[in-house]
Design a protein that fits this description.
659 residues; alpha+beta; Rossmann fold; Helicase, Ruva Protein, domain 3; 6-stranded antiparallel β-sheet; 5-stranded antiparallel β-sheet; 36% helix
Length: 659
């Protein structure tokens, strides 16, 4: 130890001499001694291979001069140069390290979206995109400085980059003045914070740009793969909140020049019909924002598949019950990268944020019974049928009671609870009777009257296994309660019948069904086509049971009248005509089909619907059909399949002589 208490380490040469004196055997290449030699092995960058890989050598490069680190830290800027392979300018600036606190403060004040400028040694890399995109603002900001030392540092940076920036700007102006661009100069088009436009096939969209990056990857035989990557923001919702969604895309390398509008995404300032398209996209953004949460709507369009009919817009349910996921970041209160807060729309988003909203919403198709994506532009309000409930042919007291149950439950005004909190809050009604008597129409018309979704499932769709049943039923009940929907469980016979000791699997399914229903808080209609003895446990849970007797002649006439008046282009139908139609004992579904087929027949003849068309259909279906069909099998076929035959008959007459 020296007098000044400092530790003096031996030099590498002294250590080597000690190793030689020790005479110890060389175990350098022994597997057991890997990494045990207490020395540093220095390797230096050597020549590139023909595949573009770097080789590393042990010899210190003769053409490299060591840098004095302490001396380097005193400079405001440290510049690294690379060979440019250009005769008039053999070196180009590759990287600038900004060490001046005065310069870093100046740059941070103008270039707010580059966090690297706050580091101890901020690095500006070729091609100096941030400087290029803010060149005008930087010069304007510099003109407001009066501190001589700051001005000297700022001018130092300007003098260094002036030639590089001006050269890039000249190329940029020359190309963009003709709406053209090359791959090498794509970066000049895209400034962080810009609004980008993506024409798309059918749904144009806008985004806000975050950043860009040129990426080069070496391939075999000295070739390289070049890509231009963009990261930008759109606004979407997960059903609970609106937020930014980050999207990444790549523009592949291309040769020569290209029209800017041929890129699949480009800055909106190059759009054709810019003002008109912005207005359309902004209006769509307002509609998107208005569809946040749960909404019962009408839809006719395509995103991932064709959907036609009523839907429930429900992004939360979509992400809960499908494998899809979404990641959002919060929208700032003061979106400094977007429009000023004063431009905030009445919807709670800024005008700029409305432009970058998603063109699609997620929801459930009640007709296709599946989760789907929906085009915002194709989502419309429902045109309710005010006559649906009036056309329901049930005794008045039944109609009033059913409607009262439903309205009260939907409004959550009853407040009734079982002795155990959460139990017994739902309304369960059983509709029993033969097919075609109006059971399903009861649920449909009630839902239409109260403007609620009708969510229909069958016992078959719930599955047969206990686990499948519980999962499917829980999902159906949760969704119906969440949507404030009228839930219709068709063909519930398998759950309602009296349980028997030997039917172990069915008994387990019924037990699951009963337990799950116990905590349901919504409205449930169950239908059965069979005259069954309802299990006692079910009977205690049913709030109202409606038995549908066979249709009387008067009820049949009412059904005929209701369906016929749905076709305004028809001749007058008299009571005598309706009396003739009701001579056949047919149910409501058959009456609907007969009127439908009669209208098809009239339309094929370019005529208004008349009683004659109906009589002709009834005659063919119920009287003469089997006499006109050859073959013993046809003669023996039951008459109840007549309507199905007639549908098939009309469907397959395409291209033949009109009826």
């Amino acid at each position: 130890m020296a007098d000044d208490d400092t530790l003096t380490l031996p030099t590498p040469e002294e250590i080597a001499a000690l190793d030689e004196i020790s005479g110890e055997p060389d175990h350098e290449h022994s597997v057991d001694n890997v990494g045990m030699k207490c020395k540093v092995k220095d390797l230096y960058e050597g020549p590139m291979t023909k595949w573009g890989d770097i080789t590393w050598v042990e010899v210190y490069p003769e053409n490299v001069k060591k840098v004095n680190i302490e001396d380097r830290e005193r400079y405001a800027l440290v510049v690294k140069y690379k060979n440019s392979n250009e005769e008039d300018d053999p070196l180009r600036i590759h990287e600038i390290t900004v060490q001046s606190p005065l310069l870093k403060s100046f740059l941070q004040a103008v270039i707010k979206d580059d966090p690297s400028l706050s580091l101890k040694s901020a690095v500006l890399e070729e091609p100096f995109k941030d400087i290029f995109h803010h060149w005008t603002e930087l010069k304007e900001a510099a003109s407001e400085y009066h501190d001589e030392e700051s001005i000297r540092h700022i001018q130092l940076l300007f003098d260094l980059l002036n030639k590089t920036i001006n050269k890039a700007y000249d190329h940029y102006k020359d190309l963009t003045s003709k709406s053209l661009i090359t791959f090498d100069y794509l970066w000049t088009l895209f400034k962080p914070g810009d609004i980008l436009f993506e024409p798309g096939d059918s749904r144009p969209r806008m985004y806000r740009l975050l950043k860009t990056k040129h990426k080069t990857m070496p391939l075999i035989m000295g070739k390289v793969l070049r890509e231009f990557k963009l990261k930008y923001l759109g606004i979407d919702t997960d059903g609970e909140k609106f937020g930014f969604q980050t999207i990444k895309v790549t523009i592949d390398d291309f040769k020569g020049i290209k029209k800017i509008t041929d890129l699949h995404v480009y800055p909106e300032r190059f759009m054709e019909n810019r003002s008109h398209i912005r207005d359309q996209i902004s209006a769509r953004g307002r509609k998107f924002y208005s569809l946040g949460g749960i909404h019962y709507m009408l839809y006719q369009g395509t995103v991932s598949e064709d959907v036609d009919g009523r839907v429930v817009v429900d992004a939360k349910g979509y992400y809960q019950y499908t494998s899809a996921s979404i990641r959002l970041t919060s929208l700032p209160q003061d979106d400094s990268q977007g429009s000023d807060v004063e431009t905030t729309s009445k919807n709670g988003l800024t005008e700029e944020q409305l432009l970058i909203c998603s063109p699609t919403v997620n929801g459930y198709s009640l007709t296709r019974k599946k989760w789907v994506q929906l085009d915002v532009s194709e989502v419309t309000d429902i045109d309710w049928n005010p006559d649906a409930f009036a056309n329901l042919l049930l005794p008045k007291q039944y109609k009033e009671l059913i409607l009262a149950f439903v309205k009260t439950r939907l409004a959550q005004l009853d407040g009734f609870d079982d002795f155990v909190k959460g139990k017994g809050q739902g309304v369960i009604m059983l509709l029993a009777g033969s097919p075609g008597l109006g059971k399903t129409f009861t649920a449909e018309s009630v839902a239409e009257e109260v403007h609620a979704p009708l969510y229909s499932v069958t016992a078959t769709e719930l599955g047969s296994g206990v686990y499948s049943l519980e999962t499917s039923l829980t999902e159906a009940l949760n969704l119906a309660a969440r949507w404030k929907a009228v839930l219709l469980l068709d063909e519930a016979d398998g759950f309602l019948g009296q349980r028997k000791i030997h039917e172990t699997e069915r008994n387990r399914s019924v037990a699951v069904f009963l337990r799950t229903l116990e905590y349901y808080k919504g409205i449930l209609f169950m239908t059965t086509n069979q005259a069954i003895t309802v299990d006692a446990a079910f009977g205690s849970r049913i709030d109202l049971k409606v038995n549908y007797p066979p249709l009387t002649q008067a009820l049949q006439k009412g059904i005929w009248r209701n369906f016929i008046k749905r076709f305004p282009e028809n001749a007058a139908f008299t009571e005598a005509d309706l009396d003739t139609f009701t001579q056949r004992d047919i149910n409501g579904r058959d009456i609907r089909n007969a009127v439908k087929l009669s209208s098809i027949l009239a339309k094929s003849r370019n005529e208004a619907l008349t009683p004659g068309h109906v009589r002709e259909i009834l005659k063919v279906v119920y009287d003469d059909l089997w006499e006109t069909v050859e073959g013993e099998v046809a003669k023996e076929a039951p008459r109840s399949t007549g309507l199905q035959f007639w549908k098939h008959f009309l469907t397959n007459r395409a291209g033949r002589t009109p009826l």
